[in-house]
Amino acid sequence: DIQMTQSPSSVSASVGDRVTITCRASQGVNSWLDWYQQKPGKAPKLLIYAASSLQSGVPSRFSGSGSGTDFTLTISSLQPEDFGTYYCQQANSLPLTFGGGTKVEIK
Amino acid sequence: QVQLVQSGAEVKKPGASVKVSCKASGYTFTGYNMHWVRQAPGQGLEWMGWINPNSGVTNYPQKFQGRVTMTRDTSISTAYMELSRLTSDDTAVYYCARPSVAGTHEFDPWGQGTLVTVSS
């Protein structure tokens, strides 16, 4: 199974800050990497698919990059509604696996 | 709009089975695999497998093989996930999720989640 490792596990930032979350795969997943945002008590929401493609309706302050084993999710200017936990997921091979999550808090 | 609506919360005793339903609307049910993902309290996301609603073919990760069964009823556009021999470690929110694009593995939308509590 492909292991997905996210860092940091949590981040506290101010409105307007640039926030970067990284995700590393234990083996190459090409560009088959997705990012989700989850708020407490809610289902995850797809933000980025195929490493860098923005899902319809997602604000352009979210962006993704990377390929192979190393990936990044960037929030260019943090907004109050961006709190929550962010997960990466590899979609290259079965079983599908998720990272452990990064909790984003607003200072 | 595309929507997945799941059945309500369940409380089960250890050793029992639970069956969760996921009713799809707003798209052709047989055109997309249906996946199941679970999340234990305060923990991350764990993929449980998928079913092809058209053929009934399933794919489960080794961890759940022999204990999970995914089925569907195309007449009512509903997918089911049954988990047997429950233990306290199976206490979790169970989600159904559909790929955003047929044949891919990025999920949008998701169901609202079904809390399954295993307790004696």
> What is the average of the pLDDT values of chain A?
97
Helix fraction of chain B by DSSP (H/I, runs of at least 4): under 10%
What is the makeup of the main sheet of chain A?
Answer: 7 strands, mixed
Number of helices of chain A: 0
By oligomeric state, this entry counts as: heterodimer
**Number of distinct beta strands of chain A:** 11
H/I helix tally of chain B: 0
Q: What fraction of the residues of chain A are assigned to beta strands by DSSP?
A: over 45%
- Helical residue percent of chain A? under 10%
- Which series of helices and strands of chain A comes N to C? EEEEEEEEEEE
List the uncertain runs of chain A: none
Shape of chain A: globular
Shape call of chain B = globular
- Sheet with the most strands, sense and barrel status of chain B: 7 strands, mixed
Query: Biggest interface and its residues per chain?
Result: A-B, 22 and 22 residues
Given as residue ranges, the uncertain stretches of chain B (5+ residues, pLDDT < 50) are: none
| Counted beta strands of chain B | 11
Structural class of chain A: mainly beta
Distance between the termini of chain B: 40 Å
The Rg value of chain A, from CA coordinates, equals 13 Å
Rg calc of chain B: 14 Å
